Amino acid sequence: MQTMNDQMGKLVAPATIVLERMLPGPIETVWAYLTQSELRKKWIAAGEMDLRVGGAVELVFDHDQLSDAKEKTPEKYEGVCDSSTKMQGRILEVDPPRLLSYTWGEADGSESDVTFLLEEIGDKVKLTLTHRKLFDNETMVGVAAGWHAHVAIMIDVLEGTPTRPFWSIHMPLEEDYRKLLLG
Questions:
Q1: 69 phi, psi to nearest 5 deg
Q2: Most buried one in 17, 69, 107, 161, CB count within 10 A?
């Protein structure tokens, strides 16, 4: 039986991907992993966040540090999404510990936005991640696979299990998302 955590993200509107997952709670812990640099770097990227509307967001990616397994950055992502990649954005909405939304600076200089909505369900936390304004098909595929892989690693971290290597998750998912989203 497929669980919510096994499902692919969905294209819910033009250029908008939604990924839903059930995470171990409590909600305050999940919130901390979204907002605190030292915790966030364990599943996606370090960097400071000024948690107020208009506040700065910096994400400093280092995929090599997400797992003990070492793997090479795929050629197509070298220099674009490797250990030196930084993303700048600004907070659009914040309502601790339930809602965080910020702009996401794309590699081509455009800007999209990502929203994390948290809902307590028993001892679990439902995460609804929405990424909007993904107008380029290849960006949409890469972002969908990226969030899928990063949130899988976040679940590993929250559950206290060894984290899977990012690129080994991401690259096969790119092909799956290409078929799902682009036909």
A1: -75, 130
A2: 17
Q: Whole-structure pTM over 0.85, yes or no? A: yes
Cα separations in angstroms, 147 against 52, 63, 123, 131, 142:
23, 13, 23, 9, 9
How far is residue 126's CA from residue 96's CA, in Å, rounded to a whole number? 15
Q: What residue has token string 């800007």?
A: 111
| Length in residues, the chain | 183
pLDDT score of 4 more than 90: no
* Residue position matching structure tokens 């601790």: 96
Q: What is the pLDDT of residues 84-102, one digit of tens each?
A: 688 899 999 999 999 999 9
Whether 166 and 77 have beta carbons less than 8 Å apart is answered as: no
Closest CA to 59 of 85, 95, 96: 85
Q: Where are the alpha helices (DSSP H) in the chain?
A: 27-35, 37-40, 137-159, 166-182
Q: What is the pLDDT of residues 35-70, one digit of tens each?
A: 999 999 999 999 999 999 999 999 999 888 898 888
